[in-house]
Amino acid sequence: MMICKEIDEYITYVRSGKYRVCEEQLLLCDFVEKVFREEDIYVDEEQLQRYLGMQKYFPYKLVLWEKFCFALHNCTYRSDGELRFPNLFILVGRGAGKNGYLAFENFCLLTPVNGVMHYDIDMFATSEKQAKATFKDIYEILESNSLYFKNYFKWNLEEITNLRTRSVLRYHTKAPGTKDGGRPGKVDFDEYHAYPDYKLIDVATTGLGKIAHPRKTIITTNGDVRDGPLDKKLADMIDILHGRLTDNGEIPFICRLGENAEEEVKDEKNWYMANPSLQYFPTLLHEMQREYEDYKRDPANNSAFLTKRMNRPKGETEYCVTDWENLVAATHEIDEDALRGHSCVGGIDFAKINDFVVAGILFKEGEKRFWIYHVWVCKKSRDLPSIKYPLKQAEEDGVLTMVKETEIDPRLITGWFAEQGRKYTIEAIAVDNFRYGFLADVLKDIGFSPENGKVKLVRPSDLMKAAVTIGYVFSRQLIAWGKSTIMRWFTWNVKARLDSKGNINYEKIEPKSRKTDGFMAFAAAMTQEDKIKVRVKIGGRLRTIC
Length: 546
Hints:
This protein is of the alpha/beta class. 36% of the residues lie in helices and 21% in strands. The strands form five sheets. The chain has an eight-stranded mixed β-sheet, sandwiched between helices. Helix 16 (436-445) links the parallel strand 16 (425-432) and strand 17. Helix 1 (5-16) crosses helix 4 (64-75) and helix 3 crosses helix 4. It is elongated and about 90 Å long. The N and C termini lie far apart (69 Å).
């Protein structure tokens, strides 16, 4: 059936098979045709062409999917003159141009072509940077041709006003309670995935309906907040497409991989399912290809590729901390003499004092990291019989000491740090918050305490923040920890659990026979690497700078 050029062209494209599309796009085309076939509605093509003529002011042109959405959302009316689709929901992969679309739409609706005076538009986001993104696009267009536009608009960094319609565009990030009493013609939500609840959403939409032709536009990728407004909205949109729910004026424009996303993402041709603009942006494709290589090397720390590029977030999943070859690359000799006098930070980890204890110092030279460490093992540990790693070899390598006593004396650890402190400058030592009590007195004896800023009490949230850098260091093979393979063993025993909020937590693969203390000491030190002072050559001499 014929609807209008802009809608028909996109439906033809979706069904052509030229580029792969997701199931939701095929369902959307069926849905749109059904509505036009069964209801008394029409597209105001004259108004649509006047709107599209405004593309001449923009540095880009709308692509097929954008014209399709624009025509349905802004120019499709019932027989009584009311909008048929006042609410537009867009879920597309990062980089598809959703903010560019929104900038064009809002610019158009401020103008007399809309036919509504005082058609104010409020744009909401959870961060100021995101809230300003679309506003800034329009602001820069006005600035680029200010001599012309000053006859039609007035603008500053907070508001854009059309002089003829008196319609005002604003952006907001404020908390609930500050928007009551507004009379917007349109409300936008940018990156809907970031909203944890409905507080701001409900307040923002309260004023709709006081001005003719009220609209709402949601643009977003998927994200890490689960069971929030986006998950509920997405479920409703899917139900609309499958006919299980009446549309209530919604356009569900959804682009994503299928349920078997972890397999589908391996085929680059499937990426078009999540990003309907990808064929127009070769630079974006090249960037995604690079990001995919990072994702393959380290999926835990690059989960945004699946979540935001492909719109298929994972639930809780587990991975090895890094690939085996990266651990092999880290296992090579360190020139400790070359590091003499350099700045470093320490890390300590242990589960029980009658088991394993590991202490180490971390150096940073450019992007390279160096980890010098020592391991103490209690000979009376009940777990020793189940450990398959050749601890004797680590002893011979000089990185492990077997302790005959029933417990590992904390002075062995601080004695080791004192010895390292005579060769290197230790800025701080990081230790698990719950293990500090065992070491507090002896660390103070060598000048390290939380009070003087030289002890960091590490909490799980600190490790979550450091996890991104840790993943980067491993995937780029930027870490060296000496020739002994025991650090390789410690690290291979750790699983990186990606929770439903996108945070990484480090856990043991198996609690007794696979020890993780060496990796956790290294991870603790990584939480403090910003305290390492950089050495640079000035006037031919090495100098330390913060």
